[in-house]
Amino acid sequence: MTEPIRQKGFVIHPGFLDRAAQDALVVRLREVLDNAPLFTPRTRRGPMSVRMSAAGAYGWISDTRGYRYDARHPDGLVWPPIPDEVTAIWNAVSGCTRAPECCLINWYDSAARMGLHRDEDEADLSCPVVSVSLGDDALFRTGNVARGGRTESIWLKSGDVVVMGGAARLAHHGVDRIRFGSSTLLPNGGRINLTLRVVT
Ligand code: SIN
Ligand code: MN
């Protein structure tokens, strides 16, 4: 683990998880996904390019009715609990006394991306959003609270953790592309991103 990098209020912890911790986390996430399979969220503009699932009291659902946090997977089941290894990351970096209520799981294949957006559907904005990157490198773009203005980009690698809190809590961010096959963590390539959130 090296010193955190600060970019527009975002705090990036490069190499927060070593390879053994990443491997262990992938095993736990596969167990979660066995019980809460990845699905393709739809928006009014069509299907999203990432596939999603979640662990915890809430997951994030988007369909043609709009988007929201929901206590149930689209299949109707409650979400599996957040693995202890994931909560431990939150406890180490969040600076927040509340426990995460949602661990959103985003799966990026070679063509997936995520447009610039703000995470603003949570009630308690004193808690950060904590993001964990696993697998292929991702070009992460950080912007401003207001729309537009100058942005900066950084390649997030497997094991990196980003804390979006304080001035960055409501800042725009997104993933322009992934470098498919850049990591050996996931046998078929791709990227998993976890975002931990306090929802209520
Ligand atoms: C997100 O903002 O929900 C995902 C960020 C990422 O994939 O790094
Ligand atoms: Mn986000």
Automatic annotation (TrEMBL):
One of its GO terms (cellular component) is cytoplasm. Substrate binds at W60, Y67, R68, Y69, D121, R147. PANTHER family: ALKYLATED DNA REPAIR PROTEIN ALKB-RELATED, NUCLEIC ACID DIOXYGENASE ALKBH1. Fe cation binds at H117, D119, H173. 2-oxoglutarate binds at N106, W107, Y108, R191, I192, N193, L194, T195, L196, R197. Keywords: Dioxygenase, Iron, Metal-binding, Methyltransferase, Oxidoreductase, Transferase. GO terms for biological process: methylation; oxidative RNA demethylation. The keyword Methyltransferase applies. It holds the Pfam family 2OG-FeII_Oxy_2. Residues 99-200 form the Fe2OG dioxygenase domain. This is Alkylated DNA repair protein (DNA oxidative demethylase). Binds 1 Fe(2+) ion per subunit. The lineage of its organism: Bacteria, Pseudomonadati, Pseudomonadota, Alphaproteobacteria, Rhodobacterales. Its cofactor is Fe(2+). GO terms for molecular function: broad specificity oxidative DNA demethylase activity; ferrous iron binding; methyltransferase activity; oxidative RNA demethylase activity.
